[in-house]
Amino acid sequence: MQILIIEDDTQTARFIQKGLQESGYVVDHEADGQSGLERAMANQYDALIIDRMLPGLDGLKIIERLRGQGFNVPILVLSALGDVDQRVEGLKAGGDDYLVKPYAFSELLARLQSIIRRHQPQQELNFLQVGDLKIDLLKRKVTRNDKRIALQPKEYILLECLMRNAGQVVTRTMLLDKVWDYNFDPQTNVVDVHISRLRSKIDRDYDVKLLKTVRGSGYILSAPDTDD
Amino acid sequence: MIKSGIFRRILNTSVFRLSLLNAVLFSLIAAVALISVYKVAETKINQQVDTRLQLQTNLLLRTYNSYAVEGLLELLDIYTQKDDPPFFFYLLINRSDLDLTKIVKPDKVIRNNNQWFATRPLGGMAKYINGHKPEDEARVLLTILPGGYQLLVGTELKETRELLNQLFKAILVAIPIIFAVSISIGFLMARNMVNRINTVTDTAKNIIEGDLSQRIPLVEDRNNEFDRLSLSLNRMLGRNEELMQSMQQVTNNLAHDLRNPLNRIRNRLESAQIRKMNKDEYSDVVEHTIEDIDGVISTFNALLSIAQIESGLPRKNWQTFSVNELLNDLSDMYEAVAQEQGKRWLCKAEENLQLYGNKQLIAQLLTNLLDNAFKYTPDNGEIKLTARRDNNNNIQISIADNGSGIPKEEHDKVFKRFHRLDSARSTEGNGLGLSLVKAVADLHNAKITFDDNHPGLLVTVNFKENNDKNM
Question: For A138, phi and psi rounded to 5 degrees?
Answer without folding.
Answer: -75, -45
